[in-house]
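2024-03-11 09:14:02 INFO receiving multi-entity request
2024-03-11 09:14:02 INFO entity count = two
2024-03-11 09:14:03 INFO echoing inputs for audit
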Amino acid sequence: MLRTDTFWKLDAMTYSLSINGQQKTVIVAGDTPLLWVLRDNLGLTGTKFGCGAGLCGACTVHLDGQPVRSCLVTIDAVAHAKITTIEGLSADRSHPLQRAWIAEQVPQCGYCQSGMLMVAAALLRDNPRPSEEDIRSTMTNLCRCGTYPRVKRAILRASSQRGNAP
Amino acid sequence: MRQDPALSRRGFIAATLAAGGAALFYVRPGSQPAAAATAVLLNGWIRIAPDGAITVFSRATELGQGALTSLALIVAEELALDPASIGVEMAPVTEAFMDHGNTLGYGVGAAYYATWGSLSSRDMDGSMRKIAATVRVLLLRAAAQTWTVPESECNAENGVVRHAGGRTSTYAALAPTAATLPVPQDIEPRPRADWRRLGRATARFDIPAKTDGSAIYGVDVKRPGLLVATIAQCPMFGGKLESVDVSTVEKMPGVKKVLALEDAVAVIATGYWPAKQALARLRPVWRAGERKAADSAAQYALLRQAVQSPDHLFLPEGARAAELLAAHGAGMAAASTRLEANYEVPFLAHAPMETDECDRSHHAARGGAMGPHSIPIDGPRRGGGTSRPAGEKVTGAHDGGGRWFRPPHGDRLRHPSSQDRPPYRAAGQIDLVPRGRHFARLFPPMAVMRLTAGLDAKGEPTAFSFTAACPSIMDYSIERRHGAPQQEIEEAGLANARDLPYALSAQKISLASADLGVPLTWMRSVGSQASVFGVECFLDEMAAAAKADPLAYRRRLLRQRPRELAVVERLAALAGWDRPAAAGRQSWLCNERRQRIGSRANRRARGQCTARRHSASRLLCGGLRCRVQSRRGGRADGRGNHLRLDRRVAR
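2024-03-11 09:21:47 INFO inference complete, emitting structure
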């Protein structure tokens, strides 16, 4: 469910969340965006605040495996979903995309890269061998440094390595 | 002769390795050496811990340009260490570290703790190499003194000093003794021929943390009791806050205070979301101010009028205005073909990814603040100086997100409407822009450029003029508010056009100032974006009039500039300029020459980038003899710059 207004709930509620395979409990107003619960209540600051309007994609996380811009999703709408953030992509930067991101030296300032990686991870899961056009049409996140060519190369690299894996 | 303040510092700083942190304290000259349980700071900038860990202080913020990797490479080269083993930490905000920039003679005339002017690597190259080399010599001398052997028989490598006779000692063991030795002033860094780490395609050390969310940006900093403020500014430039009813939000959960400012209203709360919710419920009433140009059409009209009557003429050293104007007039009169064109660039919203913010927690008492920006502090020489405890981690000087975010000299850290001393003292992280709109309301100037040229029958230029009409950045700077004088010619409006490499005879470069009522600042590249666009496009027009290929025409104009010509030739070869572009594709050349403020370091390090847009998806850029510590980082940085330039031109 998307938050479409600024309705303000005075009453905080207790929510039990499944985040990166762990159960977490938070007490927040139900209309609080997931982004701010992650960052301010749970200390998962890898998910970034960019525009707050669902435009830039820096706050992208997975809800039940689907990429979602967490600044637009209220906590009461996602309380029963499995949430994966950049911190949960792998425990040791071993995800093929993280390895490819380092090999291709993708980030510059890096602020958008958490969201980029989460979108790319969902893309590769659904489409292990994406074409360049698939990548272009899926990767709609914004990067202020202009890392788009390296993002594309890293996704292709990860796709290739994953395909060659035994 | 200018003296390096770091090298002249006779004392040393010892760092007590407290649990979870490093509380530094200064040890005066003549004091006893640090105890065995302390880390030692040698030559003011490089800290060696008892366990061998080596950390260097940086004054440059990592904004994605690879500055901290370059710094680690420099220290590693001089100390013969693995670059990945070098830790980099933001320097304490004290005058001693800010003086660093002045050692290179940039002519800025003030102490800076800043990342600006594409100077970080050059700054490090010029002084940090010498500082690190001096530390190496101090360690060698400490070993020689301890072993009573000639220094020349000792060698430093991989954290160990070895004597030819077989004795060894670690850098860490030698550091306390080294810190008591006089700091030599005349140490030369390793010659380039001996480099084994610098100048190679080194992977950046900050990248892994940017792939798993562990990199900490300014917006990620947490402190006990942290308060967050967010602000709504008057939607009209020059407008004021008429009134606001704060009673509707004062009792909202988490809200601590609502501030009615001169042209803004701010909410301070326990977190961003409660602050944002409260701000959204406020209904401030704004009063429009006097507006000189209400919209883009009016702004362009004002600049098009201004460009016809420039009020500043740029005079090269030794030139006289009357003679310069006469020569230009004669050149135009002698031309068989006369060209004239206007090029226009709009205001460009800087729009960094990371929101504009700052941390006032340590500087609140002085009205200062820090932010994750290229100029991260509110000017230290204003506000009574800084008192950050030495060695404390510099909050806010973390990775800067969104690139090129440059609130210079505290302009953004101190909201224009706020007083030097804010009316609260709580530790607070201040969000200075309405985050929902994500709009940093300071701009590089829009400009209208008028270019003229005269060509003779062979297409050779007989005269050339460039006039930029643009508003003055200085008029909106905090320096001007603090009494900085009016510059005769403002660099931002002319930038590269003042010193073109091309053989353009009878040049006339001038500026027309026209205030548009829109606040400005020195964003990335400042006037270069506009002037490069105008000059290079006009060169293509001149080439067309001369019935010459754009590359061939530039070759003619760069005959006396072999460095610049070599770059152009290299890029043309890479791009396959001689081959026709594919159907539907266009190619163009752009020579953005980056010669920095005159100094010996800059002349030595100058380079230029030339780009040719070969197709919709291919962009080539390159440089010649640019001094880069990591070629890989330099390439990435260049690509990013040109992508941005490309976007602006495409508007």
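2024-03-11 09:21:48 INFO post-check: The CA atoms of residues 57 and 89 of chain B lie 5 Å apart.
2024-03-11 09:21:48 INFO post-check: Chain B is about 25% helix and 20% strand.
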